[in-house]
Amino acid sequence: ADGKFVKADAELRPPNAIKVRSSAVPLPVEIRYGWQDNPADANVVDEMSKLPAHPFRVRVEADPTQTQPASKP
Questions:
Q1: How far apart are CA 8 and CA 64, in angstroms?
Q2: Is 45 inside a domain boundary?
Q3: Number of domains in the chain
Q4: Which domain holds residue 25?
Q5: What is the full per-residue pLDDT of the chain (73 aa) written as tens digits?
């Protein structure tokens, strides 16, 4: 984890999940959304309520079912 954040694609997964992916980060350790003083580019909106998602930041736990790259010796 180098502490750098990159743009990613997000897909809402009802009822209460978001799938996030980026080709620049194969195994993310943290995700944040709307993380600015004025998040004008925040564009995740709930289709039913038409309300925008609240800014958030979350650490990502490793999924043991996913293939992990081999560590360097």
A1: 22
A2: yes
A3: 1
A4: 9-59
A5: 688 899 888 888 878 788 888 999 888 889 998 887 777 777 888 778 888 888 889 998 877 666 555 555 5
